[in-house]
Amino acid sequence: VPVFPWHSLVPFLAPTQSD
Amino acid sequence: PAPSLPPYFMKGSIIQLADGELKRVEDLRTEDFIQSAEISGELKIDSSTVERIDGSPAPNSAIIQFAVGEHRVQVSVEVLVEYPFFVFGQGWSSCCPDRTTQLFELSCAKLSVGDVCISLTLKNLK
Lengths: 19, 126
Description:
The structure holds two protein chains of two kinds.
Chain A: E1 3-5
Chain B: E1 14-16, E2 22-24, H1 30-40, E3 43-55, E4 61-68, E5 73-80, E6 85-87, E7 91-94, H2 97-104, E8 109-110, E9 116-122
Parallel strand pairs in B: 7-8
Antiparallel strand pairs in B: 1-2, 3-4, 3-9, 4-5, 6-7
């Protein structure tokens, strides 16, 4: 049975750190 | 072929928390995400408030605009309408909960403007 890490389920909505 | 969601949203999927505990995706709670982020060291939980939900030209898709984090940075994402987000204190929610339940058997609430979703950022990006 595959096991998935918890953080796979949460989107990364990182503000762009392009500065 | 139609785009589809990743397999871990299927009811019964086994999810490993940061402390090693295993839970089914449908049993996850807000505290599980918060505690896992605290343990992880690299990841930080942000509060992302749904500001708008618009239709998308892509089939079965929607464009969701979030205000992310304490600075309320505007971020738009295009997702399938069945894509579930975890709303603080409420649990899994999607733009089309009927479709999420039909495809993944995952019980879902309707995602609405004003809902506060769990999202992640990296710590110490500066």
